[in-house]
From TrEMBL:
SMART domains: AAA. Residues 2-234 form the ABC transporter domain. It comes from Marvinbryantia formatexigens DSM 14469. The keyword Nucleotide-binding applies. Coiled coil: none annotated. Pfam families: ABC_tran. This is ABC transporter, ATP-binding protein. CDD domains: ABC_DR_subfamily_A. The keyword Nucleotide-binding applies. InterPro entries: AAA+_ATPase, ABC_transporter-like_ATP-bd, ABC_transporter-like_CS, ABC_Transporter_VariousFunc, P-loop_NTPase. Gene3D superfamilies: P-loop containing nucleotide triphosphate hydrolases.
Amino acid sequence: MITLTNVSKTYGNSNKKAVDSQTWEIPDGSITGFIGPNGAGKSTTLKMITGIVTPDEGSIVINGHDIVKEPIAAKKQFGFVSDSPDKFLRLKGIEYLRFCADVYEVPEAQRRERIDMFASRFGLTDALSSRIMSYSHGMRQKLMVIGALLHNPSVWILDEPLTGLDPGSSFALKEMMREHAAAGNSVLFSTHILEIAERLCDYVAIINHGRIVFRGTLEQLRARYSGEMSLENIFLEMTSHA
């Protein structure tokens, strides 16, 4: 579970908060979609949850560990896939995965089993002996997903994880997200594709100008609006105001 309490962040000397007094949670056993227009504060929020950026105010607790006060313990709880897969390009795919397994102290037998399983599901087995610089964007994205999940974290945090994936790999990742949540774990992922959120999420959190303007089920969201408004129109309505 991830719990945010009165979390705020301001950059530079600006009085405008990039993230403003966020209080919400990502419960176990569920998939939460994090949705908002460009510049709304999604990336800043995810960076604070994962410890890349320190909040100015408030607390973020992951499975009972405060990300600021207990950074190592908190970071062991989750796997994070950022929005850019262009990392460690000079390494071979298998070298990157072994590095990830070393960081998280994954035993040798378990890492081999999990690497083989994930690589097979994502169709990446034959590419692991090649350097990451030779990979397509989609292949790099799949490798980053595998690296983030090797230590079998209970919490998954994914920033636009389906971008660049081929249909088969996209389907595999969505199935894995469903399986992970069904096992009692939590998944938080950002997306700008509302149809994906509609088909995949148990909950959605909508952010606008740094504030959470809605958090709940899609049924609860639709209940706020009369008529036959589409999810896209509801989203535009909620995020079109300053």
